[in-house]
């Protein structure tokens, strides 16, 4: 079968038009997708700008909080140990065992002041060092019993025991005739 030249031209024209229509459809679909992607990109860039500003603000707040934490750590260092030592002083002075009604050393603890703990080392072992000023009132025998109990860690009535392992260096004792004693001491605690 022999097709005429016109038919071939019409078939060729139809193929070209079909190809152009297909290319146009693909082009317009891609143009729509490109426009949608450009909108998404614009929104993402706005979000990134906002999130970057938020991140910078949060980093500044974190730096301020860390600075405040470090300042407060310097002002209130390791007070837990000092509190636990203070509890031990009260046990020595007043006794602890309510069942046996042990009276401790029979002194009144009227003042307890401490300095911030520091670290000191001997070789590879690190100790915490806390300085205390303690004022007690009572008769001379009980005051001496209190000082001995702090210095030796020995309780004659077995009414208390130390919460923490510690060693005491009594730096000075001043006892006046009215039955008041001012005691200065350093406590060394093993830091592990």
The number of domains is 2
Helix content: 40-55%
Number of strands: 5
Shape: rod-shaped
**Would you tell me the overall average pLDDT?**
79
Radius of gyration: 42 Å
Compressed to H and E, one letter per element, the order equals HHEEEHEE
- How far is it from the N-terminal to the C-terminal residue, by CA? 105 Å
Explain this structure to me?
This protein is of the alpha+beta class and 192 residues long. The protein has three helices and five strands. It has two domains: 1-75; 79-190, 2-Layer Sandwich (Alpha-Beta Plaits). The protein has helices at residues 5-75, 79-94, 140-152; strands spanning 108-114, 118-122, 125-137, 166-176, 180-190. A hairpin with a 3-residue loop joins strand 4 (166-176) and strand 5. The termini are far apart. 15% of the residues are buried.
How are the SSEs ordered, and which strands pair?
Layout: H1 5-75, H2 79-94, E1 108-114, E2 118-122, E3 125-137, H3 140-152, E4 166-176, E5 180-190
Antiparallel strand pairs: 1-3, 2-3, 3-5, 4-5
In short:
The radius of gyration is 42 Å and the shape is rod-shaped.
What would the keywords be for this entry?
single chain; 192 residues; alpha+beta; Alpha-Beta Plaits; 24% strand
């Amino acid at each position: 079968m022999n097709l005429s030249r016109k038919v071939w031209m019409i078939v060729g024209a139809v193929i070209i038009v079909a190809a152009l229509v297909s290319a146009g459809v693909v082009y317009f679909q891609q143009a729509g997708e490109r426009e949608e992607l450009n909108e998404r990109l614009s929104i993402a860039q706005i979000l990134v700008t906002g999130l970057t500003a938020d991140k910078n603000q949060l980093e500044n707040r974190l730096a301020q909080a860390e600075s405040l934490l470090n300042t407060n750590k310097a002002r209130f260092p390791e007070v837990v140990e000092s509190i636990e030592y203070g509890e031990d002083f009260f046990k020595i002075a007043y006794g602890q065992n309510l069942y046996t009604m042990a009276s401790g050393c029979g002194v009144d603890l009227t003042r307890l002041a401490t300095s911030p703990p520091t670290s000191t080392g001997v070789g590879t072992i690190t100790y915490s060092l806390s300085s205390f000023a303690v004022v007690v009132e009572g008769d001379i025998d009980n005051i001496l019993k209190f000082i001995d109990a702090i210095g030796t860690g020995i309780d004659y009535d077995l009414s208390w025991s130390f919460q923490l392992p510690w060693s005491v260096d009594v730096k000075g004792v001043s006892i006046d005739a009215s039955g008041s004693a001012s005691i200065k001491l350093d406590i060394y605690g093993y830091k592990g």
